[in-house]
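We emphasize that the prediction below concerns an isolated chain of 820 residues; any contacts that depend on oligomerization or on bound cofactors are therefore not represented. The input was used exactly as deposited, without trimming of termini.
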Amino acid sequence: MILSSVIFFFLLLTTSSSSLDTITVHQNITDGETISSVNERYELGFFSPGSSKNRYLGIWFKNTTPLSVIWVANRETPLKNHLGTVKLDSLGHLSILDGAGAVVWSSNSSAPNTSVKPIAQLLSTGNLVIKDEVSLDEDDFIWQSFDYPCDTIVSGMKMGKNFITGREMYLTSWKNEVDPSPGEYIWRYLMVKDKYPQEYLWKNSVMLHRFGPYNGDEFSGQTKYNAIDKDIMVLNEEDMHIQFTHYSTQYAIMFKLTPGGKVNISHLIMHNHEWIQDQFLPNDKCDEYGLCGPYGICSSVTPPYCECMKGFEQISTTNKTSPGNGTMECRRSKPLNCGVREGFVMYSSLKLPDTQNAVYNRSMSLQECQVACTNNCSCTAYANPNITEAAVGCLLWFGDLIDVRVYQQTGQDLYVRMADSELLDAHSKFSRKKRVIITVTLSISAGFIGLILALYIWSRKMKKRSSDVERKGRPGKALDKDKKSNSMKENTELPLFTLSQISEATNKFDVKNKLGEGGFGPVYKGILEGQEVAVKLLSTSSRQGVDEFKNEVICIGKLQHRNLVKLLGYCNDDDGTILVYEYMPNKSLDTYIFDENLKSQLNWSHRFHIICGIARGLLYLHQDSQPTVVHRDLKAGNILLDLQMRPKISDFGLARMFDGQESEANTKRVVGTLGYISPEYAVNGVFSTKSDIFSFGVLVLEIVSGKKNRGFVDEDHNDNLLGHAWRLYNENKFLELVDTCLHKSYSVSEVVRSVHIGLLCVQHQAEDRPNAQFVVDMLDGEGSLPSPKKPGFFVQGSEIVSNSVLHSINGLTLSQIHGR
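Result of the prediction step, given as a token string:
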């Protein structure tokens, strides 16, 4: 409804004894009507709250009991009777006049020029606006009530600050239930340039609570109604604000700051005009600001429990289970010294600390954030506040970490700086415990040591003698010089390093540089020719041999793709057989997805990009490389992650290359990893590119679920992971497969598509499985997918492995010798 006249117009109040009067416009509406929004969700009128006789101009939800007022114009200057006038003049001033014609409230707004024809509108959003009647821009307002919130936020409203005008938008409670004048509670955002916005609840000048923080998608600890609700944060040089939005014709959401200092979150069901209470903030005692002091963490139990972070100790005498008097304080057990070995301890599911003493960079990645904190001795912690798919942003704390609590569902990761001695102590404690166990075990077994050693030495001698005969006198693990020249130098252009070069690069294979150990042998970090490298040394006790070494050098040496690990060179002489790779700082995929403490570092965006990257790597191996390569050991442990968490397929020791028109091969020696081997390969020894596709499908389901296929048993149906996913697919319960640590922070469409593609890849018959090109197209596309057939179950029971000779490369890899 438009309120207008050529020069000005009057809104006259009807005389009534009821608490709610209506506004009447002589020219536009008949006596007794209210001014409503287009969709009749809101009304504008005069009202008296409760038992008060004062009159206020306000906006409220229509047809609700009790009256739900969202905005009051003259909250500090009420009318004392039922006489008054609302006027909009030709200059764009909206005013309330009392019975004597005195102005009791004004919008203090002016049109930019005299040619403007001001009109007033109550929009469907509940926003009262003054605009130019002839303006073509629907959002070009001379004035709007949304810029001057009172105690309530509804969809479309903002809280924040405009740095150009200096205007700040925040909520102030009513003084009491019958007096809308500003009370003693304020809910506002701290908006400071280069600082991360936070929302606080104040009582006069005392900070009571800090809500959130905002994680790029929602506010931690607050109710989110559905997937399309969105709080939008705007951060730029001119403006910093949060805009509350939701998209529903079925209900309306309202945040109201009560006179008692609570934030009441509720929603209105439109068809029956019923209010439903959703949440009160603060939630519990742990929401009290700084309850557990610096470096303390609060958990929401009764009474609240405070504990110090790792590496800190409580120094106050207050019982830490009753910290309500705010006297708890934690201090570092060992001071920081800015040593090169200082590191970080990660905490998950936390409300991030108060950012008043933090610096925010919106463009840095988490890895860049870690480097920045590591290089600044004053930096005490870092985190990425953004959980969305963009996942970019860096918070660096300088000083104490205050107001930290546990949020199980909406918490985030925090990395706290720790003294090197503290980290070493933790390692030492573990080492001492391990040494005690070893000592006791050796003491008990002392009587058998001699016999065991003798048997071991004898068996090694016999094995070496047999190996030397088989390899026609080749010394140790080294390749025959002639064969090395013929089969490797002619087939690869990789650099050949000397053992002394690699020894120098790894500081003589210093144990401090050891990254881990696999089936091939130990892996060391080193610096070779100015580049960080990973050095894989063939152990004398390794069951992998020269064939795998040669295969790795010849095969991967010819392959170049961003999703394949790069082999930089090798070494082979009488004293060592070594492979030199590019260094992957984030290790392997299984380090994250199967570790309860680390898996939360891989959000859904990371996981989906890893799935797509592996698929592109397979496409290169199967179709774009010459010759075609079948990996034969695709698994989570063979997917390495670089600094940006991009996946790279590694370990080509078991790979086979196809020339010409070959598409499959048969082998007597089945190699691979239990849980990833396809049925036709495990039973008949037939492998092809479709064998890799099966392994990829298993890997996809593992990435989505965070569960290992091998060893997983569904509690209700005794299914393995493939069977469990198949059952959920048939019951249309895709999302029950998703790793619980993701806390519903994922793209539903991407998850559903990934599970569907995973099931297509693990179908029992190889010909039913898609090729790598189709997999990549399906991951990139939005179209419909074919229905999968029942997956192939690789039963790890006696019916498969009985009467077979097993050869395990790394404890998880199976080989079977089949009779002709």
